[in-house]
Q: What sequence folds into this?
């Protein structure tokens, strides 16, 4: 079993707000991230797939295919977007880094056929990242 | 759904690697330059990983402000700009980065209640890093060159 990791970058804005909370609760729990005009990050995404190395190609999976899926499902959908408004999953899900990792997993997992998705890592900043392994 | 959140911090401290159980000559042989009696320092980079279910209402594994406050008070203020050899935790323990990593894990495990501590990773330099996941999973990974 070999693990292959591909990195991608995208920049997007978001804010944290739960309509079930009062304005005071939203402010207390989310702090500066509650600003309704949003704020932005340069996200770095690391997607790790795992599989056996194909004897003929020497690949775990075709990198061109992985790049195409990452671009279509994540970069094109999220780069230079306001996540809360422009990515359907975040209309009813707060776009925290945790939920971003889960959402990216859910977008990629059904599209990857050649190798199994192992881990989605999302860096919000160089000092904060979340790993999701598809655990329930 | 279970997610794993890692936060990265930095602090600087000095230490001297010297064991009271070894002769002077043995100390010099085992620890080399790190045995210099005057000590030396590092810029440590600390990664704390917490894991748990993502709260449906907040979208978070852990309130980051609470983690920052706890790590700031219990780790960064305690170890930052200190000579580790003079701290209580290292009175009888050599302040290698292995031992410092495990000590930080224990501090977090004992006192932090907002989420489960999964792993502490400590970089001594860009070339050396150590990980500790608690006594159940002795997964210490070290690469020392």
A:
């Amino acid at each position: 079993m070999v693990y292959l990791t591909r990195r991608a970058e995208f920049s997007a804005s978001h804010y944290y707000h739960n309509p079930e909370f009062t304005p005071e609760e939203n402010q207390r729990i989310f702090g500066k991230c509650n600003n309704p005009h949003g704020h932005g990050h340069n996200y770095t995404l690391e997607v790790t797939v795992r599989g056996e190395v194909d004897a003929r190609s020497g690949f775990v999976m075709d990198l061109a295919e992985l790049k195409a899926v990452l671009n279509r499902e994540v970069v094109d959908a999220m780069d230079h977007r306001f996540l809360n408004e422009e990515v359907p999953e975040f209309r009813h899900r707060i776009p925290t880094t945790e939920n971003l990792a889960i959402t990216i997993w859910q977008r990629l997992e059904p599209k990857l056929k050649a190798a199994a998705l192992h881990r989605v890592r999302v860096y919000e900043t160089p000092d904060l990242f979340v790993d999701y392994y598809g655990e329930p | 759904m279970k997610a794993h959140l890692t936060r990265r911090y930095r602090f600087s401290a000095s230490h001297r690697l010297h064991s009271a159980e070894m002769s002077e000559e043995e100390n010099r042989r085992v620890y080399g330059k790190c045995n210099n009696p005057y000590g030396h320092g590092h810029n440590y980079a600390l990664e704390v990983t917490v894991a748990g279910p993502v709260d449906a209402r907040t979208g978070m594994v852990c309130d980051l402000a609470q983690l920052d406050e706890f790590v700031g008070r219990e780790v960064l203020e305690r170890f930052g700009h200190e000579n580790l050899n003079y701290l209580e935790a290292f009175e009888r323990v050599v302040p290698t980065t292995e031992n410092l990593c495990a000590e930080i894990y224990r501090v977090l495990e004992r006192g932090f209640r907002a989420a489960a501590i999964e792993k502490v990773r400590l970089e001594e330099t860009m070339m050396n890093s150590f990980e500790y996941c608690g006594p159940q999973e002795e997964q210490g990974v070290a690469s020392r060159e």
